[in-house]
From TrEMBL:
Superkingdom of origin organism: Bacteria
Any one GO MF annotation of this record: DNA nuclease activity
Coiled coil: none
Residues reported in the UniProt entry to bind a divalent metal cation 1: 17, 19, 103, 212
Classification via Gene3D superfamilies: Metal-dependent hydrolases
GO cellular component: cytosol
Name used for this protein in its record: TatD family hydrolase
Binding site for a divalent metal cation 2: 139, 162
Amino acid sequence: MAIYNSNKKLVDGYDTHTHLNDDQLFHDVPAYIGRAHEFRIMEMNIVGFDAQSNQRALQIAEAHEGVYAVLGFQPEDTNDFSDAAAQTLGEQIKNPNVVGVGETGLDYYWDTASHDVQKAAFEKHLALAKAADLPVIIHNRDAFSDVYDIIKQSGITKGVMHSFSGTPEQAQKFIDLGMHISFSGVATFKKAQEVRDAAKIVPLDRILVETDAPYLAPVPYRGKQNEPAFVKFVLDSLAETLDIPVEKLTDITRTNGHRLFLNHE
Ligand SMILES: [Zn+2]
């Protein structure tokens, strides 16, 4: 890991999960990227969730320095993940701007696709990621044991549990599989003490930050529309939880993101 330089006043941050490809943000992509730069958030992953958003992620990454694409079908949209869609995804992830596969996983809260359909799609995403040697961004909502079992069976060790909202014990089990743990605005919510307790057990070389914009805006913007610049507030809150300087955490999370998604530090 890079050594933290305490003389460095400005430290660049990396939002590893944002949706400028979402209808709410897509109309004004350059403005959101510009504002992120004002907060020195210089890199971000645009994460796809269906066919259209994957196409948009590629388009945004192509047009902007420091912006990368991650492509997949989120669990809620897996009814549309046909064999043809899987084949298209397999082709799209060969694009040099693509740094990961996802978001994929299981969501038993919204339950818009059957558990069998979700599991089959999740397994297919993991197989594509493995074949392409790309990391996976994993979504888990109310499906811990199935998500855990599927990752374990796949033998995948390069990935991240996105917007982690589980217990310290669950975080530990994912860490033991080789996963990174990414914290979003959820970790800033008053009632989320368990999530902050989980953050404390994550090794510093496995921790990442994200916004999941336009959703999950951190305190003090909770309930408002989120955007990549606001990962700054996730970093502020998490640094306080971990009792380390925010510049150091910004540096650590950027370095971890580079190692996982870009294969360099
Ligand atoms: Zn997301």
